[in-house]
Fold each of these.
Amino acid sequence: MKANSSSQRAPLSAAWLQAELVRPGGFWRAIQVVERTGSTHDDLLGAAGRGAAQGTILVAEDQSAGRGRMGRRWVSPPRAGLTFSVLLRPAAVPSARRGWVPLLTGVAIAAALRAEAGLDAGLKWPNDVLVNEAKLAGILAEQAGDAIVVGAGINVTVTRDELPAAETTPTGGQATSLALEGATLTDRGQLLVFILDQIERWYLAWTGASGDAAACGLQRRYQGLCQSVGREVRAQLPGGQLLTGVAREVDDAGQLLIQTAAGLIPVSAGDLVHLH
């Protein structure tokens, strides 16, 4: 049996997480840890439709139908990663600014990993967390009515032979995990608390500024962590169109501005490949 098999990976303690995160008057209202589900994202979208409160957290030890962006699957061995979704209701934020939710989540994850796990984590627009150019985590956000469910899948103790092959990842890149990168912290419960603390901090600042990412410092922090800015990139847009140029900046709506031969083009969604 492998040393890192699921039988030897410690389960999350729902009681400890509840005590750490859910407090009277606090932002996080409820947390549930399930052993297995199809998708925390889909489960929480359903709960949102039934009126679940902002600040609801759902964590799964194992997912059978985890989703990434554009309907892709997210696969991780049981208890080898953090797979969670949170429910947000940013009523004070105009819809045009809500594209910042997944970017905000990326900032929170990268900041927590840099501060608590000793990793030089960065971001690839719009939804990847990278370490040494390899993908460590993916983020998915989806709106349902006035609610947004944002989720993340983070490889924690995934071993080399448990990772997907580079050619099977959406943009042909290599995947990695905290353990493989020599993280100083791989306790999933502690990591989750640190990440959720960062999400709370940035979300409250952003909503307090009515979604103005520049005013609350989010835009500057994101661009400081974003490894796409300043590089030659190729973007595959949702309709299949390919766009090549230099990523200049992330604008106030969270779009990536790409300088192409035809001019500066804003991109709101797509798969990005770093070319150089």
Amino acid sequence: MKNTIIKLGTFSIGCACPPLVVAEISANHDGKPDKAHRLIDAVAETGTKAVKFQLYQLDEMVADVERIVTWGPPGRKHQESVGAMFQRLSLSREVFPELLSHAKERGLLAFVTPYSEKGADFLLSLDVPCFKIAASDVTHLPLLRHIARLGRPVILSLGKCTLAEADVAISCLQDNGCCDLALLHCVATYPSPIDEMNLRVIPTLQANYPECVIGFSDHSIGIIAPVAAVALGAAIVEKHVTLNREDPGPDHWFSLDMEDLGRLVMAVHDTYVALGYPRKRILVCESQGREKATRSLIATRDLKAGSVLRLSDIKVVRPGGGFAPALLDEITGMILTVDVKANTVLTWAHFKRSY
């Protein structure tokens, strides 16, 4: 696997870096700037390192504004027109300078998903460290070309698309100047069923696009899928977060609250640390146990110098530190040069001649 590293401001992402957990605010600010600021503060307290917003206006998103959408958990379904929903949940551009500044003050990497060329240009004027492209825009090649030419790293979610469509999108970004590209495996259903997470796509993306950083944008309930994704090599984990899962809104109910976000950060960290390195070796924590709990070739009785070792003179027991049991046949028949007491761990020192 190629050791690809991408710099996002002062942060680095890649397989050689601890996974970056991104708190996706999504629509969980409910269109209220003050709530967006409270979310930033709450995220920062969990130990999460990054936060993401979305920048859109209704006319950038949908034409069939009267189409009815249904959201909410079983037993508490809510219906409204898609136009009314987007209108209610969008944040005006004017609030983004303060949001990004606030996040930076809290030590967070902050970035935004634009849904139009104008939105991307506006974000560039705010000196964002990167651009996120939503799964819904994998086939929006005009937008991809425009963002690629802005000269910032790009994070692309690959949901609701085939590998062929993903390949076209990736080529479009790279051919138009995007040198630093991260790809997020994504199942773009809200929430995503756990039996359709298809996380083995992550190694597939790593193999097909070794020049890219690979991660996971998760919409399932809970933290099992993102932790498993890290175990498979995901260097980024994006997860929807909320202040209260009981708040009314299309995303709150399947998002992580701050307590669970903190658990996710810890679980991702522990998973990454537990993965270690691919080379098999004796670990520091095993050294003492290896000395005491492995077996050696040991004298069964007192033996005099000049004795020829017989099989009955040797037993294979703990502790370790002497001849390994694999040398039993080689040691049998050798002549001792010193006296040896019973239960002595046999070593080369017992067979050396002094001159």
